[in-house]
């Protein structure tokens, strides 16, 4: 049985009252997930970090689990906005790999992946959380699919492999690399794979002549 104040279940979202207080609690939840993990992200721990009260968590979010989902939403939205700008002018496979490498480094440096890893870990003990977390990965698949279509376009590889399937595989691989890097504290193997990918895309472009960016295409 879950202890009082722990993220034991996902319930309906609370009303949008006092934006400032909600923002403070969301930020505190993010930092608590990073430092204490899902198991340590209790109402008491988050409230203390926010300089608030436990009651306000349930008043604004209905449950600790909902607050943690709001924290994940906040991190994801910020990342999508920031990284969307990174791939706006990407027009070749090599540019896409370069952008992905930069995104990977920033994710690890900022601790963003820790928030997602801890939420995935919590899904095994919190009813309904798994579906909620999975739904929040959907926009990243769409993000990857758009970037792939912009980068490979009408190239031979782009016409053979369905971009939706490739996007699913890339997101799964990316998450796996980030999770392993987070768990063992060593990002070198993952960065080595990105370096190999850069070499392969360079070879692909040389063989197919697929080097035109969106501005020159």
Topology:
Layout: H1 19-36, H2 43-50, H3 54-61, H4 64-87, H5 93-110, H6 112-122, H7 129-152, H8 156-160, H9 163-184, H10 188-208
Short account of what is shown:
With 217 residues, this protein is mostly helical.
What this model shows, in words?
The chain has 10 helices and no strands. The termini are far apart. It has a domain at 72-208: Tetracycline Repressor, domain 2, CATH 1.10.357. The chain has 217 residues and is an all-alpha fold. Mean pLDDT is 83; it is low at 12-16 and 212-217. Helix 1 (19-36) packs across helix 2, helix 4 (64-87) runs parallel beside helix 7 (129-152) and helix 7 (129-152) crosses helix 9.
Q: What is the CATH topology of the domain at 72-208?
A: Tetracycline Repressor, domain 2
Tally the beta strands.
0
Name the beta content range: under 5%
The backbone outline, from C-alpha atoms, is: elongated
CATH hierarchy: architecture of the domain at 72-208? Orthogonal Bundle
What is the helix/strand order?
A: HHHHHHHHHH
Tally of contiguous helical segments: 10
Distance between the termini: 60 Å
Protein structure class? mainly alpha
CATH class assignment of the domain at 72-208: Mainly Alpha
Uncertain stretches of 5 or more adjacent residues: 12-16, 212-217
Determine the mean pLDDT: 83
Percentage of residues assigned to helices: over 70%
Give the C-alpha Rg: 20 Å
